[in-house]
Amino acid sequence: MRATGWVALAALFGLGCNPVTLGDKGTTDDTGSLPDDQRDRDGDGFTADEDCDDEDADVHPGGDEGDTANGKDEDCDGTPDDRTVCDDGMADYDAIQDAVDDAPRNFVLLVCPGTWDENVVFDKDLTLRSVEGPSVTTIDGGGEGPAISVIDDTATIEGFTLTGGVGGIGGSVSCDDAEIILSGNIVRSGVAETGGGGLGATRCDFEVTDNTFSDNTTAGIGGGVYFLNSDGDFNGNVVESNEALEGGGLALENGRVTADGNTIEGNVALTIDEEYRGAGSGGGGIWVDSDHDLTNNVISGNESYYNGGGIILFQHDGEIRGNTIEDNISREDGAGVYANYSNTVFDDNVVKDNAAVDDAGGLRSYIGRMTITNNVFEGNTANDDGGGLKMSHSSNTVRDNHFEGNQAGDAGGGIELDNETADVSGCTFLNNSAARGGGLHSWTNEGDLTIEDNHFEGNYASDCGGGIEMDNNPHTVTLRHLTFVNNSAGDGAAICIDKFDVVPDEGEPYNLHAYAELYNSILAGNVAGDDGGAIYVKLGTMAVVNVSMDDNDAATGEITVKEDGVVTVHNSIINNAHVEWLGHIEDDGLLSFSYTALFDDDGFSGMEDPRGSDGNASLDPAFESDWTLGSGSECIDAGDPSLEDPDGTTSDMGAFGGPYGGW
Fold it and tell me: Angle at the Cα of 45 (from 43 to 51), degrees rounded to 5?
């Protein structure tokens, strides 16, 4: 029921007004004998110090807001076009639904503190605003439907605790073919059958800002929030401790969503297979099958019983920038992020301390063309492959990222390239570890790929390839402008090509001959426990051109070539090796040198000493601290005369000589 009486309203909202007799017009003095604040210019019975607009007789304390929204605050309560909802008999209404049904369009309904046991349905443009905020103002759906349902036009909900709702799509809050604006609410303990335990929106436009979604559940998708075929902004929210089969915290499907500055924390996705959502299954924090921009969010401590502990992406394009993705867990792949058939731009994120039971502690990309740039991957772990990043059957661009302290139980501590054609450039690999390829591992590539302008330092492989390990790559891997410093491994402290079985789903295991070319790179201070202080090759072919090898250490060879391995070294330098042999051949391997400075007393095993033939000689490179050639170097202009340096002179030996020497 709607109550009347402006005196009661003034008392309710503490206006402290002192009414005067409406017939007393003494305050309308036009002679200037009264102070300005004691005049009543509009003749409505209220002086200027009592009136909120002393130029309009329709505006005064206790005025009538009327039945049409006009933007005026006729009753001087601080809110234009408003009516009040309280249960004390003094307000316009004593039930929220009554107010919604009766209020004119575009009005504001001010709700007093208390618990309102209602299932409120909006079908016109209204704003519902609590007077004192969500800590003291609750709408409880009572398990009989959503606390709030928006079925037409635009509803704005501000400052409530919305709880106890039950629905199909949308537990505590539901929007269907309408527009919803949520601001400053607490949405909790909602239950949805299909999706959106807290909030579910279908074919809606939305603006959801500065809310908290917690302890909501669904048997389907989007434990906290689910947007289906909906467009809008989701900014500054906290989504925590929600649970769903897919998308524990937030789920976005077939729309366009911008999510900025949110905290997505401690949510769980319970699916353990692909029966419910196919290949895009999981997403402890966020599940995305929608065009998207995810920026400046903190996605932390979420868990997926399948893929994508922090985020799972499926099919759609978008941008993920400036996020912190940390401490998430996946019981399968992609503890930080799992991207499936995605072309997303992944830029300037911190991906840290995530843990995958299987592959990809940080980011997993499967079939896509992602752009992965300017990110930090740190402290991520995978029990199998790709501690920091694993990519499969994709053509991604990986540029200017930092990989530090990531671990893989098998291959690729920093990066695993699996059946991949990605190019990797401008990256730093520091203190990553794995059994094979402490910094990076590549195998069974589906086309030529290039790894260039990267720095590998302090990485470790218990088996082979402290910096890089490659195997079964039938297409050429081009390595250019790389530095390998202080890496370590059992074999191949800097670079390894090894024989490793490919085990198909059907048939017998097999091996493929691998191909690589190494240009203008530095291998220095690396240590192998057994073979290959610098390079180890088995069942592979590697061309080594304009490479500087300095101060590497191994039990046997600086370069070791075994079983069907072929290595050609040209225009390069080996200096100060701490090995038994500079070149070591076993099991029908082939190793040859040309125009190479071999400045060391160590000999060769399985081959003749090449010094004195094919342009090879014992020449002192006189390295500077950055492995450039000192002014007295004997390697200046001593390289292959058929090659020129960038300055047009005869090529120098080593990393800064030849046509690619200007790096």
Answer: 90
Q: Provide the strand spans (E) within 405-480.
A: 407-408, 415-418, 423-425, 428-430, 433-436, 440-443, 449-452, 455-457, 460-464, 468-471, 477-480
**Helices and strands (H, E) in the chain, number of each type:** 2, 69
The residue among 448, 457, 444, 437 whose CA lies nearest residue 388 is 437
What single-letter amino acid sits at 42? D
According to DSSP, the β-strands at 371-373 and 324-326 are: unpaired
379 pairs with which residues across the strands?
Answer: none
- Rounded Cα distance, 225 and 267, in Å: 11
Could you give phi then psi for residue 11, rounded to 5 degrees? Answer: -65, -40
Distance CA 346, CA 370 (A): 7
Query: Considering the entire predicted model, what is its pTM?
Result: 0.91
> Residues 203, 247: contact at Cβ < 8 Å?
no
Distance CA 176, CA 156 (A): 14
Q: Report d(CA 58, CA 269) in Å as an integer.
A: 57
Distance in angstroms (rounded) separating the CA atoms of residues 286 and 284:
6
Query: Of 565, 609, 606, 608, which Cα lies nearest the Cα of 589?
Result: 565
| pLDDT digits 0-9 by tens, 258-306 | 999 999 999 999 999 888 887 779 999 999 999 999 999 999 999 999 9
Range from 1-10, 279-288, 433-442 carrying the lowest mean pLDDT: 1-10
Distance separating alpha carbons of residues 21 and 103, to the nearest angstrom: 30
| Tokens read off for 474 | 């039938």
Mean pLDDT of 511-523: 97
In the predicted structure, residue 521 carries a pLDDT above the cut 90: yes
Specify whether the CB–CB gap between 268 and 249 falls below 8 A: no
Q: Which of 311, 189, 142, 296 is nearest to 233 (CA)?
A: 296
Residue 339's CB is within 10 A of a number of other CB atoms, namely 31
Q: Are strands 460-464 and 477-480 parallel, antiparallel or unpaired?
A: unpaired
Count other C-beta atoms under 10 Å from residue 75's C-beta: 25
The CA distance from 190 to 174, in Å, is 11
User: How many C-beta atoms surround the C-beta of residue 409 within 10 A?
Assistant: 17
Phi, psi angles (nearest 5°) of residue 14: 65, 40
Q: Are strands 303-304 and 329-330 parallel, antiparallel or unpaired?
A: parallel
Residue with tokens 């040859």: 592
Which helix or strand (DSSP H or E) is residue 364 part of?
strand 363-366
